[in-house]
Design brief:
The chain is built from nine helices and seven strands, in the order ααββαββαβββααααα. By secondary structure, it is an alpha+beta fold. It folds into two domains: about 120 residues, 2-Layer Sandwich (Beta-Lactamase), CATH 3.30.450; about 70 residues, Arc Repressor Mutant, subunit A (Orthogonal Bundle). Strands 2-1-7-6-5 form a five-stranded antiparallel beta sheet, with helices on both faces. A two-stranded antiparallel sheet has the order 3-4. Helix 2 crosses helix 5 and helix 6 packs across helix 8. The longest helix is centred in the first third of the chain and has 15 residues. The chain is elongated.
Length: about 200
């Protein structure tokens, strides 16, 4: 549950609240993938340009009075349940073209009572949830995943088991993370990430 999008949503929420631009906010705005940061009630905190264009069409989902709304009641109920949930959930918005529904990947952050929504249609390129973490801290995608798992409190052994990798591979990623973040322990990784994203 605790991954790159939770870190991204916290960084965006904080930078939006204080009204300052940050590398994360710049990346969020320039991303080609439609992204929205919303409250658990559907109120929009931030939506990038790609999301605003997509939602302006009103095909599957729309922005109405600064809220994310589905175009039918059943999908709206699913969206609200996903926003208030604890695990990522895919919500399928009904589209004028039934072969190309609008998919909304809802990744809730219950602690902050927010959720990150990534919109895409079948055939659109996917974006890694850890990409912003990689861009902001200079980590590779694999290193970003390992760092997010460490913040979630998982041991290298558990991460290796979960990702079907060897423990030595995870430890190699940790050594590279230590070097890039200029830290010497897993607790320091947590500290750096919390300082930059909370």
């Amino acid at each position: 549950m605790f991954g790159g999008n939770v870190l991204l949503s916290n960084a965006l929420r904080v930078s939006h609240a204080v009204g300052e631009s940050s590398p994360i906010q710049d990346w969020f705005e320039a991303a080609n993938t439609p992204l929205c940061l919303v409250h658990t009630d559907g109120g929009v905190i931030a939506a990038n340009a790609a999301a605003r264009v997509l939602l302006a069409r009103g095909d599957g989902f729309a922005l109405k009075a600064d809220r994310i709304c589905a175009m039918d009641a059943r999908t709206q109920d699913c969206l609200i349940a996903a926003l208030r949930g604890r695990r990522p959930k895919l919500v399928i918005g009904r589209s004028a073209d039934p072969k190309k529904p609008l998919l909304a990947m809802v990744e809730p952050n219950p602690l902050a009572q927010t959720a990150m929504i990534r919109f895409r249609r079948p055939g659109m390129p996917r974006i890694s949830a850890y990409y912003p973490l990689a861009v902001y801290l200079g980590l590779s995608p694999q290193q970003s995943r390992v760092a997010a798992e460490i913040v979630a409190g998982r041991s290298p052994e558990l991460i290796a088991h979960k990702r079907n990798l060897r423990v030595t591979t995870i430890r190699s990623h940790l050594k590279a993370i230590f070097a890039k973040l200029d830290v010497t322990s897993q607790a320091s990784i947590v500290s750096v990430l919390l300082r930059n994203f909370f």
